[in-house]
Design brief:
The structure is a single chain. The chain is an alpha+beta fold. It has 6 helices and 16 strands. It has 2 domains: 25-179, START domain (Alpha-D-Glucose-1,6-Bisphosphate, Chain A, domain 4, 2-Layer Sandwich), CATH 3.30.530.20; 183-338, Multidrug-efflux Transporter 1 Regulator Bmrr, Chain A. Helix content is 29%, strand content 36%. The strands form 2 sheets. Strands 8, 9, 10, 11, 12, 13, 14, 15 and 16 form a 9-stranded antiparallel sheet that branches. It has a 7-stranded antiparallel sheet with strand order 1-7-6-5-4-3-2. The protein is elongated. 20% of the residues are buried.
């Protein structure tokens, strides 16, 4: 009996000593990973702020061993989802957010042996070469967690850090793919209504075309602001002459206005009236890099239908402003190829 008594006391001492040892052991953790992503902050925020989008990039959710259940609300304060894996089950709920800047969530995870509560934070910071995204987790291990980590030799940072890195890489990969998407509509015959435009004509080589176009557009808008003239349509480019052999283009940058404007004789900004015309219209949704494809599709359609180019010059209408369209795949441009009408 004395042996059992001493054995019990020894075990009790070991238990108490172990409890004291692990209770004094620092259980706080903070793990963070960051990456500069070549995408606008708003697009990145869209991915992290809605749990419905986490399947696009979260490395844990891509595992066949994880069952993910979205909450009735997946975005905004109290947006949530729950999950089950081979070890246990957990949940996440959004507790704080700052649109396009940060999102904070609380994660609870339960296994047969341990329970944990962590704070997940993602911050988004515009930097010179893109957008820096910082994904982090912090929490405090309880006594059971400390014991289990010791027994099984678990290193939380080693377990999580590479996953966080993988997740950030996945966000970048997903967004770069999404931003490159484009769609060209089937050509259609339309009647363009015409109207007054303020315009400036320019001549340049193709390498300087974009810069010259932007410069001319700024000059027209500054002129309109100074004269209190309002836009009556979206900006457009009229192609007066394209010399592919020499790589040059003569074009006019224009903005539709409601009434006829009479600029001074010294002004480089002019006003004219575009006659209503019948044209083949092709719409591009995507970056301007695909405009040549849109033109080509319209020209093929004209040839197939036997249409003859009209006397008016072809033009493009820019339906969206890239400066306020975060996703390049959503930029809309209309191409008009005027034809000779039999009416």
């Amino acid at each position: 009996m004395k042996v059992l008594k001493y054995l019990f006391l020894l075990l009790l001492i070991i238990f108490i000593g172990g409890a004291v040892f692990f209770s004094l052991k620092n259980g706080s953790y903070y793990i963070s990973e960051k990456k500069t992503i070549q995408a606008p902050p708003s697009l990145i925020y869209e991915q992290i702020a809605d749990f419905e989008n986490w399947g696009n990039w979260n490395p844990w959710l891509s595992s066949p061993d994880v069952i993910n259940t979205l909450g009735k609300q997946t975005t905004g304060i109290d947006g949530s989802f729950s999950f089950k894996d081979e070890s246990g089950n957990g949940s996440m709920k959004i507790t704080q957010l700052d649109p396009d800047k940060s999102i904070v969530s609380q994660m609870n995870y339960h296994t047969s042996f341990t329970d944990s509560e962590s704070i997940i934070t993602t911050t988004i910071n515009p930097v010179q070469n893109g957008t820096e995204v910082v994904w982090s987790i912090k929490g405090e291990d309880g006594l059971k967690n400390k014991v289990m980590n010791f027994i099984f030799g678990l290193n939380l940072e080693k377990e999580l850090k590479h996953k966080y890195k993988e997740g950030l890489n996945n966000i970048e990969k997903h967004l770069l793919t999404e931003m490159k998407k484009f769609e060209i509509s089937n050509p259609a015959l339309v009647d363009y209504g015409g109207g007054y435009i303020l315009y400036k004509s320019s001549s340049t080589n193709m390498t300087q075309f974009t810069a010259e176009k932007v410069k001319s557009l700024q000059e027209i808008m500054e002129y309109m602001e100074g004269k209190n003239i309002y836009m009556f349509g979206m900006p457009m480019i009229i192609y007066d002459k394209i010399d592919e052999a020499n790589g040059t283009v003569v074009f006019s940058t224009a903005i539709p206005v409601r009434d006829r404007v009479i600029p001074g004789s010294e002004s480089t900004i002019l006003c004219t009236y575009i006659e209503p015309t019948r044209a083949v219209k092709v719409t591009l949704q995507g970056t301007y890099n695909h405009l040549q494809e849109a033109w080509g599709k319209g020209e093929v359609f004209m040839a197939q239908q036997g249409y003859i180019s009209g006397t008016q010059q072809p033009f493009e209408v820019y339906k969206t402003d890239p400066a306020i369209t975060p996703n390049p795949a959503k930029i809309l441009t209309e191409v008009y190829l005027p034809i000779v009408s039999n009416d």
